[in-house]
Design goal:
This protein has twelve helices and nine strands. By secondary structure, the protein is of the alpha+beta class. The strands form three sheets. A four-stranded antiparallel sheet has the order 6-5-8-9, with no helix packed on it. Strands 3-4-7 form a three-stranded antiparallel sheet, with no helix packed on it. A two-stranded antiparallel sheet has the order 1-2. Strand 5 and strand 6 form a beta hairpin. It is globular and about 85 Å long.
Length: about 425
């Protein structure tokens, strides 16, 4: 169905097309130009219609019986469109619009949602590579981001599962809010190197994956105890027992917005427990693409970062002591892996890194290889040593920092 034009949808479209133009510029120039042209045409519509379209905001037309997704304020969509167009083009028109309309740069509490996209605009501008971007605006955005991240740290520290939402916020789709808060914490970490933000963001992913009141993974096909009956029509209709994998469900809904929840829980049920893995519970077990978006971002970030390791028990939290493990395999030929741990140095802002060296020596004390020689934040690490160019024998590997040193032996057999 094609519904009426709206300035909110047009703003979102302009922002996404501008971003797509930027991403595809070095991959597919023709497609990139097509996206940018669409974005600028959409922006022209917004300029020609300075007040919200339709008047009063989008409403479902008569005869449409489904979720409305109404929105009575299009200022955030316009701001996001301008921020993305500026980052893609560098044109002053868009920069001027952001500077005039960012409203002192405050990060919106409660993270992002389908009708609240201001934070997306602010994060894009904060990380702008355009020379003409305002440093004053960027500083204000950064300060508000850090302030909000500190609030989230406080919330997580008083919650048994380390999650950043409080009772009252376990609403329809709250798992998305948890992950969007993790996204903001990641941006705060990237701005400050404060490992407290990093660790708390990771705790939000842990919550989604099973560190929650249900000991349950809210992602289909991920984990030994995960969603089996999502409110997802393709999963129900395809004749396959397991649901389509990789989909995030909405999570606990303390407001009991569907009959299934109402039949199992009541107002006395603790908010975090108001969830059931039932295909009929659309308010707790629904699938939505905008909920999956922060899941992809957050899981992708931690998969790429390497500050933590993943094993059969899940994510390891930032450790509190040095450790050098025995290489594996041992004996080896010609490759072996060495794992080591750098602890967190607790200070006022969790921001420490440690100069770390991992070297290999022969029995005479001659250095054979340097595997690590850099500052490392706290975390669990794994490096691979390739010994194809040296002869069989006993070798030693040493992990050393300013305050720690440990050596272990290994055997190369060719």
């Amino acid at each position: 169905y094609i519904h009426v034009l709206s300035s909110t949808a047009t703003g979102n479209f302009a922002a996404m097309m501008a971003k797509a133009a930027r991403i595809y510029q070095s991959i597919d120039t023709t497609f990139s130009n097509k996206c940018l042209n669409a974005a600028t045409l959409a922006w022209s519509f917004l300029v020609s219609n300075p007040t919200i379209v339709p008047t009063g905001g989008f409403k479902n037309p008569t005869g449409t019986v489904t979720g409305e997704y109404g929105d009575t304020n299009d200022s955030d969509e316009r701001l996001w469109a301008a921020a993305e167009l500026y980052e893609t083009t560098g044109f002053s028109e868009y920069n001027d619009y952001v500077i005039s309309n960012y409203a002192s740069g405050g990060i919106v509490s409660g993270a992002m949602s389908w009708n609240k996209v201001k934070n997306l605009a602010l994060l894009t501008y904060l990380n702008s590579s355009q020379a003409g971007s305002s440093q004053t605006v960027k500083n204000q955005i950064k300060n508000s981001l850090v302030s909000y991240a500190n609030t989230l740290l406080g919330r997580a520290s008083t919650n048994g599962f380390g999650v950043t939402i409080n009772p009252g916020e376990y609403y329809w789709g709250c798992n998305s809010d948890v992950l969007n808060k993790a996204l903001l914490l990641i941006y705060a970490y990237e701005q400050t190197n404060n490992l407290g933000y990093y660790q708390t963001a990771l705790m939000q992913l842990n919550y989604i994956l099973g560190t929650n009141a249900h000991n349950f993974s809210f992602i289909t096909g991920v984990g030994s105890n995960s969603v089996m009956h999502p409110h997802h029509r393709p999963s129900v209709a395809d004749g396959v027992v397991n649901p389509v994998p990789g989909l995030l469900v909405g999570g606990p809904d303390q407001y009991l917005d569907d009959p299934v929840l109402q039949s199992h829980f009541n107002s006395s049920t603790p908010p975090a427990l108001c969830y059931i893995d039932d295909v009929g519970s659309y308010a707790s077990n629904e699938i939505a693409i905008n909920w999956n978006a922060p899941l992809v971002f957050v899981s992708g970030y931690f998969n790429a970062e390497g500050l933590t390791s993943v094993d059969d028990q899940g994510f390891n939290f930032i450790p509190d002591k040095f450790e050098l493990e025995q290489n594996y395999p041992n004996p080896f030929n010609p490759n072996t892996k060495i794992k080591f741990t750098i602890p967190s140095v607790v200070d006022a802002n969790f921001a420490s890194t440690t100069m770390t060296q991992l070297k290999v020596f022969d029995v005479l004390g001659n250095e054979v290889a340097t595997l690590v020689n850099e500052y490392k934040p706290a975390g669990n690490y794994e490096v691979e040593f390739n010994a194809k160019n040296i002869s069989s024998g006993v070798y030693f590997y040493t992990l050393s920092t300013q305050n720690y040193s440990e050596t272990k032996s290994m055997v190369l057999l060719k």
